[in-house]
Amino acid sequence: MTTALNTTASGWRRTSGMLAAVGVLALLFADLEITQVSPGHELLCMAQGFLGPDFSSTEFLWQAIANTLAFAWQGTALGALGGFLMAVCWQWRAVRAVAASLRAVHELFWGLLLLQLTGLTTATAVLAIAIPYSGIFAKVFGEFLEEANPAPAAALPQASSAISVFFYARLPLVWQAFKAYGGYRLECAIRASAILGFIGLPTLGFHLETAFREGHYDQGAALLYLFFLIIFTLRGWLRPVLIPAYLIAAIAWAPPVIHIKPDILIRFVTQDLVPAPLRHGGGLNELMPWLASLWQQQLWPGLWQTLVLGMGALLITALLSLLLFPLISPLFGTRASRVGGHGLLVILRTTPEFFLAFFFLILLGPSMLPGILALALHTGAIVAHLTGRFSESLQLRADAPTGLNRYAWEVLPRISPNLLAFLLYRWEVIMRETAVLGILGIHTLGFYIDSSVAEFRFDRTLILILATVMLNLLVDALSRSIRKRLRLKPGHGVG
Question: Is residue 210 included in any domain, yes or no?
Fold first, then answer.
């Protein structure tokens, strides 16, 4: 037993060292240049706007809030339904593959594709959220069902139908977990709905982007404060008995009517998404040079920049997590300092990475630095929060040292395996978000996807999105393999 424990300990240390080394190399290759001429002046203007938000001059404010909530509610409900149906068949490999593929494509990428079919409509926003969320719900719900106690199902008569076994012996065991995760996913959907404004949909993100790009920081701050208010009060107004009323109100406010002309759909699928050489009657002799050109000009640069930014962000995330988790740990500080630390982490993990990257782009200019900072601050706050909560279970001896010695010699060695597990769980999410930051102008895969959509080269769009899917699936598989080998399993809700 001692030998096994020592092997596991050396394993997570070696894995941590290798990931750190890759992160350092990524930062050496990353473009960290600050191109903004006067970032200090811009930061001062932004700070003045946040200190004096202007709620009165923000036009269409309440409509944007209503749209954000309506899209989130409908997208979450539809995604939960689809995920539940897939989770029932989670033992089938094909279902798991479909779910993984759906959740590997970011909501913004789904939105860009759906815009070509359904335009700037409710259906575009709802489906952009529901499609990837169905894959996420399927994974989580399926794992809940797999880990449920099998004894009640085994106790039923052998003649019981599969439907009876499911609804009477399996579903009741995980129903509370389903509801709890649904509430968390609704919070994520509100953030996703707001971000969809950056591709033109009428949510809070659309007006926030407009305000900040025009330098109206007081109006942008008002929008962001209202966004925080919605998220922070979610547990207060999200009551199970009111969910049907909320959903009915969401549908009544923004009916998800789909108007797609059959000829447009057929042309999009059979022509626009088909590689140009094949569409024009060419064969493999023309397709291969086309793919080689796409690889050289967009695929390889996009994959490389995505990996560099993502791995650099993972390293900074780890460092920030180590610095921030003592802010809420009962093993450090005072009650007042922990309250302040909790507030800071809540703000950082509530603000979407996309928003943070957008703010940093305004302050620092277009480079990888805004993306790395945004991903590290957001994910670092999440991992620090989870690590701080884990530290509550640690029991220190009566003569344990205090201050820095307590942190370095008593706490850090005991929380490090779990912190590594949290980071590995978030790794795939970091890579997924890294790709989509390209829509802001950072040269990751998302930059080339957005450019191909703007040029109506949807055949390239499809290949580039498939590349993001493969990258995310590979990172997810590698993460799961490492966690399994090291027997790291912090639990659900990390992703």
Answer: yes
